[in-house]
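hey can u run this one w/ aspartic acid bound, need the structure tokens asap thx
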Amino acid sequence: MNKRRDFLKKLGLGSVALGLTSCTDQLKQDVQEQSNHPCIVSTWNNQNANQTAWNTLQKSKSLLNAIEAGIQIPENDPNDTSVGYGGRPDRDGAVTLDACIMDSEGNAGSVTFLNGFKNPISIARKVMENTPHVMLSGKGAELFAFEQGFRRMDLLTEESKEALKNWKKESKYAPEINAERHDTIGMIGIDSDRNLAGGCSTSGLAFKMKGRVGDSPIIGAGLFVDNEIGAATATGLGELVMKTVGSFLVVELMRNGLSPEQACKKAVERIQSKYDISSSQVGFIAINKKGQYGGFALQKGFQFVVNTSNQTQLFDAQSILN
Ligand code: ASP
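ok here u go:
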């Protein structure tokens, strides 16, 4: 394998060799292996987040720092209505956030039903690093966040208040399931030492019932990292992802030899085969130990962003339904 790489280097082909039609599959794979370390992948059109993660990785060489810094971008953005500050509230007007993070050693941290702190990803990281637990929830998570030096703030924007008022007029106070209103950020990556990590952060379903927690902070559902195999994260209707332990399933499918995209597709097909998915969206992204990445969704419209260099690329994921 090294001989092939030396040969390519001598020819000065580098990643340009990806386009060679005469390459054997193994040779193409070797080239992709070379060119995809490091690599950062995020759900939806989170280009600024992905770019920030990339820049942080270049500077700090820490993939966890990169994941945390990247996810903080939509968390801090009041115009992002599915994550952090400005996230849509539950049907009683409270913005409650969920997030989790996982590193290459198999450590994990998570917060759920967290009110009044805009960076749940950072608090999840503190749970992982500074407690013997994996998950803190509600009031306990808030107390912990405060003790760790995070400051409380009101996460409900004027725009969110208006949206809630309109929703109340239209709905019968019934929690809503929809296919389109998702942009939870799930971010996974591999560094130049081929170690993997990931994070996921969301305000959950808009106008959900008080206390509802989705897949995003659940290790194995919204995110899973196995440093021997790969990492996966999910977005969409969390109830479907939890009932199929979606991200764990994607990683296990990669363990059985599927490519990241094939594994995401198989997991989506599993959900489709078991549940009525007519108006729901679910999307997965995955990366394997070779730095190969992919995504797949139930419905058309799911996108993901990738950095393998200073440039962010946006991909339209394939889907089962169109
Ligand atoms: N998966 C998130 C949840 O169910 C929502 C989303 O991705 O938009 O809480």
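The longest helix spans residues 260-274. anyway lmk if its weird
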